Amino acid sequence: MRASTMPSVAIIGTGFGGLGMAIQLKKAGITDLTIFEKAADVGGVWRENDYPGAACDVPSHLYSFSFAPKSDWSRRFAPQAEIYQYLRDSADKYDVRKHVRFQTEVRGSEFDERAGEWVIYLADGSTHRANVLITATGQLSRPAVPRIPGIDSFEGEIFHSATWNHDYELEGKKVAVIGTGASAIQFIPTVAEKSAHMKLFQRDAAYVIPKPDYDYSKSANALFKHVPGLLKLSRWATYAELEPRAAAFGDLQFLMKPFQWKFRSFLAQEIKDPELRAKLTPKDPMGCKRILMSNDYYRALARPNVDVVTDGIVEIRPEGLVTADGTLHAVDAIVLGTGFAATDFLSPMQVTGLDGAGLNDVWQEGAEAHLGMTVSGFPNFFMLYGPNTNLSHNSIVFMLESQIAYVRQAIEKLAEENLKWLDVRPDVQSEFNTRIQRKLADSVWAQGCKSWYTHASGKNTQNWPGFTFSYRAATRVLDSSDFVAQPKTALVLVNA
Ligand SMILES: Cc1cc2nc3c(=O)[nH]c(=O)nc-3n(C[C@H](O)[C@H](O)[C@H](O)COP(=O)(O)OP(=O)(O)OC[C@H]3O[C@@H](n4cnc5c(N)ncnc54)[C@H](O)[C@@H]3O)c2cc1C
User: Fold this and answer.
1) CB-defined site of ligand 1, < 6 Å
2) Is 324 helix (H, G, I), strand (E, B) or coil?
């Protein structure tokens, strides 16, 4: 690659996506790199979500970069602090921090067609220009706060799991928890144990199965470190264990049966009270919402100081929550385990492409992109963990690494062929999305539950319908014929 044709690259975000992208670009010699991060450190969701009990639910040997294996995780599913430290260490090891502008929020970006550059608008009012814009802002980085009437009038303590107030002492308090998602089931055991009384306000019961978690002994980690190939074997054995499960979410839903049996026997074993067991039995088909894993969630709900409330919350008053049956539940604190605004991709950023088209307008019926990464009319713009690249069965880092390799190829192509931009063809984007939406229509996610996978329009904008190896195969080699290429002089179709 000639330095004179080397595109400048801007990345937004420093989670697994942004860091992994920056590391691979640096390895490929693409070093004109600026990374914007609104927080003061790297780490993405693993910096933010430090609530009690936070941990991954994909084993760490797989939920980590393939190029930066770590042999000394303390347990099979590492706690948040270790994953955060791993990301900080990765940033240091590959000297990424010098490219990062911390505490610099991107408000929006507009494509300057004449210059072939993205003009990036920053919160401090300044701008930055780059040929290529990569968003690595994640699907789960904006906490969703429920719009319950009166929520602002509550006079006690209220916080979201992603912004946990560690100064607030739960001991001796009456605490309401709203939500039963992946974060809630992790922090509920601590709240139940510490508080005087906990009320869990449950809209939908979750399917919770045992978590096959255990400590790694010092000697096991020594083996992972010193026995050649052992850590890799553990990674691929985990992949081989998880990957077939994709079929159970698609058109082979009978494969969910063993998990249903596992769930039922676990619930029966942990919850002896038939009334509570009935409350905790989900009505949705298994898999429609994320299947959760915990060894202490049900046990926490069986405690004498815990109640599960299934009447909907209609109002919040200064002293507590009012449910549909008219009961006022007076509490000292409310913890929101209400998840993230996942379908609002890139929001609140405004991204403007060719001819002044705004991404939010293009996406009124829900986000979509070719391979979850590129949108026609938005040249040299790439998303990591974009639309329809979320998983219910395996590691997002695997998906991110597929995307990172694809975007790297696109940037190499710009440099090698001295192109001004690449813009995905609208027919290619539309054919891809028709195909995946057809598959999604047959999936378990389409069976009517209310989940964060579905946009208000009813479209599943989040999940990849299939195997991660199919996604890797589809993204392994960038197909030039999928793009309109604009040379620095005239407009031509590559391979057309
Ligand atoms: C609690 C929790 C547990 C999870 N556990 C798992 C798991 O076990 N397995 C799994 O596969 N996935 C898990 N996930 C999903 C997780 O989101 C992905 O695995 C992965 O971490 C996403 O990384 P990312 O870099 O794409 O995004 P993020 O980690 O969300 O990082 C986005 C970054 O962008 C920054 N940013 C956002 N907007 C702007 C802006 N406008 N300007 C500047 N900076 C900005 C944010 O500050 C953040 O640092 C979990 C998610 C959560 C919340």
Assistant:
1) 12-18, 36-39, 44-45, 49, 54, 56-58, 63, 105-106, 136-138, 140-141, 183, 349, 384-385, 395-396
2) coil
Residue 158: which region, alpha, beta or left (left: phi > 0; alpha: psi -120 to 50)?
beta
**DSSP reduced 3-state for 218:** helix
**Segments in 322-450 forming alpha helices (H):** 359-362, 396-416, 426-441
Q: Do 302 and 427 belong together in one domain? A: no
Q: Ligand 1: distance of its center to the CA of 488 in Å?
A: 35
Q: Is the dihedral of CA 69, 71, 73, 78 positive or negative?
A: positive
Q: Is the pLDDT of residue 144 over 80?
A: yes
How much is the pLDDT for 450? 87
Give this prediction's pTM.
Answer: 0.96
Tell me, what's the pLDDT at 496?
45
Q: Are 181 and 89 in the same domain?
A: no
φ/ψ (deg, to 5) at 116? 65, 40
- Residue nearest to ligand 1 atom 26, measured at CA: 138
Quote the domain boundaries for residue 334: 143-206+290-339
| Same domain assignment for residues 377 and 428 | yes
- Has residue 268 been placed in a domain? no
For the domain that residue 176 is a member of, what is the CATH number?
3.50.50.60
Q: Give the mean model confidence (pLDDT) for residues 464-492.
A: 92
